[in-house]
Structure formats: C-alpha cells, structure tokens
Amino acid sequence: MKVAPFRLAAAAAGAGLFLAARGPALAEPAPSATAAEPAEDGDAQALTERISDLEEDLRQTRRWALARRSPVLLSGYADVGFYAPEGTGVGFVQDGLAGAPRFPEHAGRFGWVFLGDILAPAINTRGEPADLGDPPGAARFDTIDSNGAPGFIVNEVNLRVSGAVADSALATASINFTPRSGTGFRFGDVFDVDLAQLEWMVGPRRRLSLFVGKMDPVIGIEYRERKADRRFGITPSLIARYTTGTPLGLKARLKLGPGERVVLAGALTNGSSVIEPFHFYDELDSNAAKTASGRLSASPALPFELELGVSSAYGAQDRALDSRGALWFVGADVRARVGAWQLKAEWLRGRGEGESGWRHAEPHRPYGLRLHDGGYVTVEGTLTPTLGLLVRGELRDAEVWLGDPTAASGADRLYVTRSWRATLGVRAALTDRLIVKAEYLRNGEYGRVPSIPNDVFTSSLVAIF
C-alpha cells in the first residue's frame, strides 16, 4: 500500500495537464483521496499535502494555457457583383470637343477643360467608376475599363485581423484584395492595406482612446460604413472621396458626459482624409507640415436616436514639396434613427490652392480645389426582416485643376463639376452573413454642364466570414 500516494500523484498530475491543455472549460479539480486506493493512516497527511500541491500546479498550468492561447481574430468578406453602365461608362466630356465651348471664360487659362464627374458612375463600395476614359494629358490606371459593357466582377475580398496585445490595447489591420484584368503577361490583381492601427483605451472607464497608425478618419460619418459588409447599400456618396480615406498618423477620441452623449475626436496625420485613388492624397508625406482634423458630436436624450456633428480639417496640400499652400475642409452631419428607419445627411466644403507661383516637380504637383458645395441625404431601412430599401439624393459643385491658371502659359487642365445624383437601392439579407444588394444610380448635370449618359445599374453579393 506504500504505492498509493505515488499512484494518486501521477494520476492527478496527468489529469491536470490534460485538462489544462483542453482549456479552462474542461479543467476540473484533481480527484480526492476517496476516489483512489485507500491510503494508510500514516500517509494521509502527506497525501493531502500532495493533492494541494497538485491543485496549485493545475491552476498554474491553466493560466499558462490561457496565456498561450492565440488572441487573434480573423474576419472579412467577399464582395461579388454585376454592373451595367449607360453609354461608355465615362462620367465626363471634354469641353468644346463636340461644338462651341460651354465655359469660354476658361479658354487660354487651361490647356484642357473637362465637364462632369470622373467618379460619378460608381459600380461598387470602393467607388470605382465603370470607366475612367482616355483624356489627353493624363495617364490613369483604369481598374474597370468597361467601355460601357456590362460585366461580372469580384469587387473586393477583405481580410481583417484584430487582436488584444494588452488588457487595454487592440491592434487591427484590414487588407483588400482586388482581382482585375492583367496586361502584357502580368496579373492585374492588386491589394491595399486600408487599416493598420493600434488603439489604447485609457483609464478604468475607457472613455479615452488613443490611436496610432493607418486609421479611420474623423471627418463626417460616412467612413463608418465605407466597407461592403457595413454599408446598407452599395455605392458611396459623391463627397465620400473627401472623407472616407484612411490617413496615417495619430488620433484621439474622448467620450464625455452622462451616457457618453458628447464625443470629441481629433487627429494629426500625414495628409487629408481623401481616398487614395483621388487627386488629393499623400500617405507618406512629402512636406513637413501635417494635417489637423477634428469632429465634435452630440446625441441629445430624445425618444429617438439622434446624432449631430461638425468637423473640419486643415493642413498642407497633399503631394506638395512645401508647406506654403493649404488644403482644408469643413462640414456638418446628422444621423437620426426611428424604429427600423434611419436618416443620414452630410454637407461639405473645401479649398486647395494648387500650384501658385511656381511649378512643383513630378509626381509632387498639388491639385487645386474649389468644393463650393457637396452633400447628400439618405433614407434607409427595412420593410421586412429580410427586405430593405434605400433612397439617396446628392450633389457636388466643384472645380479641380492642375497647374497655375495665373501663369502666362496657363494651367494644364480643369475639371468642372455640377452634378446631382438620385440613387434607389434594395437589399435582401438572406442570412446574417449573406446579403444581396442592387442599386440604380441616376446621374445628372446642371448649370452649363451638358447632360452626360452615365447612369449605372449595379449589384452586389456580400458573403461575410
């Protein structure tokens, strides 16, 4: 009977290690002495002490197993669609190419004048247009290049990686894969990293969050649904190009008051919050000055959900080699929810000086901007637990140019936009992870900008994993 303590110790240790490896949900206390062979009276005290030691070893082994367990969470989605553009799929025309110029006052000041909106005929949540056209004086990477033909497309495959690196710190990365047509014996598939951030939640109540890296912006509210699995519909607004890009730098967000109904956010970044494919973006800065942006929002205590916000950004022009010229935006937004329906609206203005006094070296020539007015109003909600409806109205009144129009030789080119758009969309949630969407975009022009056949029908199947 002298072997009983040894047998019991071995059994308890083996069971403890096995259960700890299987996880805390399966781990149980070591068996008591009554479950093993009877021990001699003289060994009872030693056996009890040994069981106590084994239980402590088991607790330590469970803590070790928990620490070694991977904290990384993988998620994402695949977005597959079909689109059918009107005309050639191009959203602009060259002024004076098919008759008398509509804007003769720009003659001599710009080498080329284009009318319309390059990004208006969007076909997916990324905002890619059906066709970028082939204007003189510009070399572009046309990712769709439909030439007006309808087609199927894998809009985007997104992979998100997140994990707790400390009790109050969370790391997040988001990578987009976009299969496109290759040329010249090369694959056309590309990828882009749109998030790579570390968030530190400060204090026991964690009302203050500090961010560093490539992160969501703080301008407006549309950035919250810039991804296909979060957007109710498909396409972004006409002003999303200015507010949904992910800049690189530092950000802070503070929640204040009872119920955290006031939120103050600020950021200091390399460049603005413009999307990367557009003219005004500089992820790795080429000048010393940085862009400061901020937003203040309030959600008053009402019978329904309401959020009111104002935001702005100011900094050196993206891509410029110096910090003399400024690029700024100012806007306001509102979001209200009543039952299953939600109203969202944004208004935005912006200015950029462009080249003034001297020409910058390629590829660091800043574009000039006069965003006189831009905004949208969206109403969306569910008719049944499965079926949803979206209606959006919007406009964009802007001028974008490259070069110095006051120089003797004039500027390179000018884009004049007086555009409105009406969007009707439907959404069917087949499951909580499989969503079908369809939209029709009625693009129109006003003022002296001629009507351009650039309406779009587009659809999307989003599979979330």
SSE topology:
Blueprint: H1 4-22, H2 44-68, E1 72-85, E2 92-94, E3 110-116, E4 151-166, E5 169-178, E6 190-202, E7 208-214, H3 240-243, E8 248-256, E9 262-269, E10 291-298, E11 305-316, E12 326-338, E13 341-353, E14 367-382, E15 387-402, E16 411-431, E17 434-445, E18 456-464
Parallel strand pairs: 3-16
Antiparallel strand pairs: 1-4, 1-18, 2-3, 4-5, 5-6, 6-7, 7-8, 8-9, 9-10, 10-11, 11-12, 12-13, 13-14, 14-15, 15-16, 16-17, 17-18
What does this entry look like structurally?
Helix content is 10%, strand content 45%. The chain is mainly beta. The protein has 2 domains: 4-68, no CATH class; 72-464, Beta Barrel (Porin), CATH 2.40.160. It has a 16-stranded antiparallel barrel. Helix 1 runs parallel beside helix 2. It is globular, with a radius of gyration of 29 Å.
User: CATH homologous superfamily name of the largest domain?
Assistant: Porin
Tell me roughly what share of residues is in helical segments: 10-25%
Query: Could you tell me the strand content as a percent range?
Result: 35-45%
Q: CATH topology of the largest domain, what is it called?
A: Porin
Order of helices and strands: HHEEEEEEEHEEEEEEEEEEE
Oligomer status: single chain
CATH class of the largest domain: Mainly Beta
Domain unit count: 2
- What is the number of helices? 3
Q: Largest sheet, if any?
A: 16 strands, antiparallel, barrel
According to DSSP, the number of beta strands is 18
End-to-end gap = 58 Å
Low-confidence parts: 1-39
Rg:
29 Å
Structural class: mainly beta
Q: Could you say which overall geometry the principal axes of the C-alpha atoms support?
A: globular
Numbering strands along the chain, what is their spatial order in the largest sheet?
1-4-5-6-7-8-9-10-11-12-13-14-15-16-17-18
Proper CATH architecture of the largest domain: Beta Barrel
Arithmetic mean pLDDT? 88
